[in-house]
């Protein structure tokens, strides 16, 4: 199966799934507002993001069901897509920062051949989930997701997390793995390696909403290996979320080797060799050392936009992994 998508399609897809994974880290306190929960900076900002969200969503298959799950922390938007495969447990996808469900446009057609797929808009992020109460620590981050899974009809799911979604998946697993059949962590941040300082510093201007759009576009292109982001639906949505939404989430705590070694669910770790979100060599070494039931795959030429660059290879690796752990 061809690993890379055609060139014309690649321009659309090579936008980093977690383009602003670190964008709010250093300026969280400097730019904070009195509100204790994530919120839109204005009605116009929300309208701009949702219009971009809807445009990007047009490239997804039609959902079989739209579900809004009420948790202790707010309402979580979940979509169910009907698959054609026979997986015992459905897949559940967690996106990167500011990207929400539409970031999976390149991946859903292939993943649906494995089985049913649920997608989640992360709570406290730009998207159609609505945060209503503060999320203050890693335990809260695990709690809202566990409550979401508990409300779904499936007893277990194969959790697939991308970028900050990978951290969210791993964080859930170290707190409560009762609903997890397996974990696939796609270039996760703060799981196997720390975010490099040069990336964190470069993210600073991208986190300032009143600075020009070109600054945010530049950072998003940087995380996507230099890919073009002008007039790209997913990139437009991510930039609108970065500019218009105030995050009120705690900084993710690096998941230690000791905690990784306690994971009882099988783990597929997919590491992008050219990712700016970690040192790939260190990430691979950590995953191979710390995961007692882990499979590690390095994609040497992939950037942090790995899901758009290698959708076919990811589909095949995930299909094999899920088949062995169903």
Plain-language structure description:
It comes from Rhodococcoides yunnanense. InterPro entries: AB_hydrolase_1 (IPR000073), AB_hydrolase_fold (IPR029058), AB_hydrolase_sf (IPR050266). The protein has about 325 residues and is α/β, with parallel strands linked by helices. Strand 10, helix 10 and strand 11 (about 295-300) form a beta-alpha-beta unit. The two termini are about 25 Å apart. It is globular. Strands 2, 3, 4, 5, 6, 7, 8, 10 and 11 form a nine-stranded mixed β-sheet that branches. Strands 1-9 form a two-stranded antiparallel ribbon. Helix 2 runs antiparallel to helix 8, helix 4 (about 140-150) packs across helix 5 and helix 7 (about 215-225) packs across helix 8 (about 235-245). The protein has a single domain (about 5-190, about 210-325), classed as Rossmann fold, CATH 3.40.50. The protein contains twelve helices and eleven strands.
